[in-house]
Amino acid sequence: MSQYDVVIIGSGLGGLESAFILSKEGYKVLVLEKNRQLGGSLQIFVRDKAIFDTGIHYIGGLNEGQNLNQSFKYFGIMDKLHLHKMDMDGFDRITFDGDPTEYKHAQGYDNFVEQLSQQFPSERGALKNYVKQIQEVCDYFPLYQLKEDDAPILGTKYLDINTKDFIASITSDLKLQSVLAGSNPLYAGDGYKTPLYVHALVVNTYIESSYKCVDGGAQIERLLTKNIKAMGGEIRNYAEVTKIVEKDGVITHVELKDGEKIEGKHFISNIHPASTMNILDSDKIKKAFRNRVQSLVNSSSAFIVDIALKPNTFEYKNCNYYHYKRNDVWTGMYQTGPAWPDGYCVFVPKSSKSDAYADSMTILSYMQYDDVKQWENTFSTIPKHRDGRGQEYEDFKAAKAEQLIDEVQKKFPNIRACIKSYTSSSPLTYRDYIGARDGGLYGIAKDYRDPLKTFISPTTKIPNLFFTGQNLNMHGVLGVTVGAIRTCGVFVGQNYLIQKINKA
């Protein structure tokens, strides 16, 4: 049996960042990944020579002095990333059926107010109030600003305020309300549930600065992996943990699918807490906690069409599009049947091959897990086995892809002529490739009506078992990074760690 100081289950961003921090602090670390590719949502794939991201379509907070820039300096990757700055005056464009205007979200708070004031001249005061309050909310979460803080993350205001109600309190202009909330697929925003702090922390990082990763976000995984190994950390793929074994009140080892046992002093789970409970062989976690974790609602899933474009046919777009059929941007995730899709996002990746033309395009639209539930007992992680779920499933995907392309063609009339090939993914793809429970885009859904229920502590009742990843407090690159700081802060001291990051 191998013995490690820390064994980390899952190589998503939170697992890799935790491995880096603890390796840097002298721990003997092993990361175990069940799939071939490392990185979770950082993974990319290639079709028809075009690169597609599975999760990282753009990143915020990367300007000098901003939070993610400083964290990435600490991880030793900031100066090695190949990035492309998005349109300063409109990195996100919110659009609606029957309205030719592209409503712009701009980089920089003053510019954000300026660009939208040009489109809503009578709302300048409301927009100034909006950005002031968004920044105020972010200030109540010191960890996101990389500020030392001994208070638990729960001891803050703004947990029980609903985003939709907050935006309605800022302006009575219904179109502006929709525009301000228009990028809500970034956090699977639900008008009935999503707390204000989720909206604020997510939009703040992109308004600060927005970048695309040239040739995909997997470069983050590759650089982190290289740095972890350089410090003596180990990473293994094709190493699926099927059992976490507790004896005398502590975890003694994990068991892999092939029967191998790996011992450790500490264990960090970077997989969904409910999936962790499924493989945890212990009676130390009370049934009530297990039931609570298993019953937590996961965020909405999505249907995605990844299009490889014919060379030099579709001009590169240095922005993203969030399009809605109606002025209501809050209920599209519940749309099923003939009325689907209610809207979509378009992401155009930046390729190093050309500045003028795009190589590929990703179209994303909400989809409920229930829409594919009839195939949930099928399982496929081998792309070649496209018929793994049966012809009926393939027909379902093809029909949905065509529906989505039809919608996008209304916005980009030449798109069909530019398509070389496309591939599509459903909530089951998310579930099987990324390990996302119910195919949820962003882990456990936050609910302002019961905010404490959806906060997962990095510590558990078993003293040497910990959580990290997007289910801890927030999703996204910044949210997961803060989660890794919280988890590793239990080992080395949170304020000590923040000091080290700020000195990097």
List the helices and strands and how they pair.
Blueprint: E1 2-9, H1 13-24, E2 29-32, E3 44-47, E4 50-53, E5 59-60, H2 67-74, E6 83-85, E7 92-96, E8 99-105, H3 109-119, H4 124-139, H5 163-170, H6 174-180, H7 196-208, E9 210-213, H8 218-230, E10 234-236, E11 241-247, E12 250-256, E13 261-269, H9 273-279, E14 280-281, H10 287-295, E15 301-309, E16 320-324, E17 343-347, E18 360-367, H11 391-411, H12 415-418, E19 419-425, H13 427-434, E20 465-467, H14 476-492, H15 494-503
Parallel strand pairs: 1-2, 1-13, 2-10, 7-16, 11-14, 13-20
Antiparallel strand pairs: 3-4, 5-9, 6-9, 7-8, 11-12, 12-13, 15-18, 15-19, 16-17, 17-18
Largest sheet: 8 strands, mixed
Examine the coordinates and then state which fold CATH places here, giving the name of the CATH topology of the domain at 2-44 and 215-296 and 448-503: FAD/NAD(P)-binding domain
Strand composition percent: 15-25%
Gross CATH architecture of the domain at 2-44 and 215-296 and 448-503? 3-Layer(bba) Sandwich
